[in-house]
Amino acid sequence: MGYEPLVQQNPLRVLNMGRENNQMGLVMARAGLGKTALLVQIALDAILRGKRVIHVSVGESIDKTRKWYDDILQSILQEHSVTRPHELMDMVARHRMIMTFKVAAFSRSRLEERLNDLILQDIFRPNVLIVDGFDFDGTSREALEDIKDLMDNMNMQAWFSAICHRGDQRVSPAGVPAPCHEIDDLFDMIILLKPEKDATIQLDIIRNYGEVVEGGTGLRLDPTTMMVKEL
Amino acid sequence: MKKDLNKVRNIGISAHIDSGKTTLTERILFFTQRIHAIHEVRGKDGVGATMDHMELERERGITIQSAATYCSWKDYDINIIDTPGHVDFTIEVERALRVLDGAVLILCSVGGVQSQSITVNRQMTRYKVPRIAFINKCDRTGANPERVTQQLRDKLDLNAVMIQMPIGLESDLQGMIDLIAMKAVYFDGEQGDNIRIEEIPAGLRDEAEAKREELLDAVSMFSDELMEAMLEEGDIPESMIHDAIRRGTLSLELTPVMIGSAYKNKGIQLLLDAVNAYLPCPTDIENTALDLDRDEAEVVVSNNPADPLVALAFKLEDGRYGQLTYIRTYQGEIKKGDTIINSRTGKKAKVGRLVRMHADEMEEIEEAGSGDIVALFGIDCASGDTFCSSALNWSMSSMHVPAPVISLAIKPVDNKAQINMSKALNRFTKEDPTFKTYVDHETSETIISGMGELHLEVYIERMKREYKAEVEVGAPQVAYRETITQRAEFDYVHKKQTGGSGQYGRVAGFIEPLEEGEYEFVDQIVGGVIPREYIPSCDKGFQKSLEKGILTGSPITGVRVTINDGSFHAVDSSDIAFQVAAIGAFKQAYAKASAVIMEPIMKVAVEGPSEFQGGVMGSLNQRRGVIVGTFEEGNYTVVEAEMPLSEMFGYSTTLRSLTQGKAEFTMEFATYKQVPKSVAEELVKAFEAKKKEA
């Protein structure tokens, strides 16, 4: 592909995460710390490795979601001199599809129907599913298990984002805060973002490939791009 | 008599096709007493609505050209620009938006926010036009203004707040509750001209109170006074709420939502009140011009009638007495007998007749002040030109004009049609910058080009009707382009000696791809190896080469040409010799520069019931489209895609049969992209076959 070097500072690459299929990942943070940016990084990492990504935005518009990609892609392009930026942008557009849903309209059956539409007509064969804005408070464990099941069947990797609240002190034994403290066992990878005093973001891995990581592995991220600040 | 600029409103009425825009305009003109009878758009009386003054519009029931109309309501002067509702005419909409200060966005209470409204809204945001939303057709079955308001928030990202609520809906629509005054308003009489104000019906009292709270919460953001008054829980003066809404509307952070039914004459007077109360006057809006004497530095126009004149010609029309030019003045005054200068051409013109337009009728006036919209007779200019008094040389910032993406060959059927056709084409190109025409030298066909199939169809119809020019129409052609993908050197000698004075010129240098822009010429000649006077000749020769590429005969864009060496002959070198040398040099380099074909890519949005989403995506995919994304709400889906224009011919038919006529699509030009190899090969083959034929 020739684009792999572009993602060296991508946190996933550094941590060697998200390489395998049939796994579910979760990014947690308080509002405004960059969950979406990190999800877009995860998506771009996959795209640059030649995978196809479906980005589901619940409660957001297509244009806004697209802008996230454009902005982060721009900053990558600025840092590295890419000989044919249009080709890169084109390739990202062709490997990505955005689906936006109203909060109430998103469900496993809806998602399955849409994915089948795409796959059966050979329009788009996704490898990775990104779900931004999933309503964890209003979803039962069964519904999430259902989606996990679907991902298994379709041989896809999925990444979710969840907002945790300052006031909510509930935490799972593994250290996963609410609202995901009771369903954390469904995820193979869990990342927690925390703000640091020097205006960077600390990335903690709570779990990787099903194993609990003691104490978290700290990485410092640049808050605008969610790229690794220092190695 | 000096006009109070605070009481001038230049507004546009924009909407999705069929949401009743023309009917609404008609009612406004009726209530402001500019016309004396109401005609329906598809009227039985054969008269047709006053604003749609072209026959064709009457027949199709749509509005094509924006006519400017003047009226007055409660001693405010209102100029209304009626804007076309179809995207194929976007330049008309955009040009109209440029001269507007505010707008009324009409929505159908049943259809809600449709794709067209999204396009229009985006354009309004681009030109920073404050707007009021009017939810029309509340008398129709399935009317749901609440849902439409929610859509305004979700789909258009507007902070939409209802300032009225309906009393009854659908066929039971009786009137509405004014949530600011907290009164019920009814419209009596056959044409709804008697307004009856009463107490709010007891059954609706609680709901109205709740809605008012919602309204106050939203608008108190824009007024500290109002916020304080609310905290004190005393009576809130109406004027305070009006002020807050106005402030919010002008800052584009609030969109007041009104409701009614133009067809049933309900809510029009209140809408006019709102236009006066909330939409900006000319001095509320900052407009900028470019000072041509100071290297196009940006200057703010003053709106002061005492300053020198600056006016923009935004629309031309062929009247019975010659060309009619609609202008908007930004500062200064224009009087009969004044001399004005067209800053594009530098030509002087004398103001002969000055008129105020009411669609087909006109009223002679002596002068017009700053911020007004009037029309001039007998001035020769193109649309988009700026007029100034002799003291200034300003140009209103150039409007964004998209390049045409589709073209057709037309052939007049007889001699008479030939003459009429050229008259018509001359007129259309002046009126509409996106409509272009030229004669292809190789085939001697007349080619017209524009923004879409419908755009060109309308002009062909107009030729037939207005100019009696019958033409035969060829198949639509996509406007391809060629460009280069790598640097290539050239070194070319043009030498000709055939007795008499010969020709000699040699140019050397290279061409390379240009990311932004169409063409750049770089002169790196040192030591006078090509004399100064022949440098422009080289430039001219290269530009000529760009007209037709080798692959498909399409124009070449995105090329930077650098010349860095050459030689000349004291006697035999001439302007023409260097032009020919440049053409030869370009050909030499172009063959080595990996030229590719580019095609126009359109942004397409298909919307319809969710059950058809799979089929729609399939149909787009088959046509080489890239699906950008989907948006789902309940049972309704929008699919956004980027599609090559060449694959979109006849798509409306496909879509109709695919979705039982329940889905519709809009299309606008997005960008040019390289054609895939297989398609490119076919294009080249077709071009070569055509060349052989000729």
What labels would you give this structure?
heterodimer; A: about 230 residues; alpha/beta; Rossmann fold; 6 helices; 9 strands; globular; B: about 700 residues; alpha+beta; Elongation Factor Tu (Ef-tu), domain 3; Alpha-Beta Plaits; 5 domains; 8-stranded antiparallel sheet; 16 helices; 38 strands
Structural class of chain B: alpha+beta
Per DSSP, what share of the residues of chain A sits in E-state strands of 2 or more residues?
15-25%
Low-confidence stretches of chain A: none
Largest interface: A-B, 24 and 21 residues
Assembly type: heterodimer
Task: State the separation between the terminal residues of chain A, measured CA to CA.
Answer: 25 Å
Q: Which CATH-level-2 architecture of chain A?
A: 3-Layer(aba) Sandwich
**Cα radius of gyration of chain B in angstroms:** 29 Å
Derived structural class of chain A? alpha/beta
Estimate the helix proportion of chain A, in percent.
25-40%
Radius of gyration based on Cα positions of chain A? 17 Å
CATH homologous superfamily (4th level) name of chain A? P-loop containing nucleotide triphosphate hydrolases
Largest sheet of chain B: 8 strands, antiparallel
Q: Given this structure, which CATH class of chain A is correct?
A: Alpha Beta
C-alpha geometry of chain B: globular
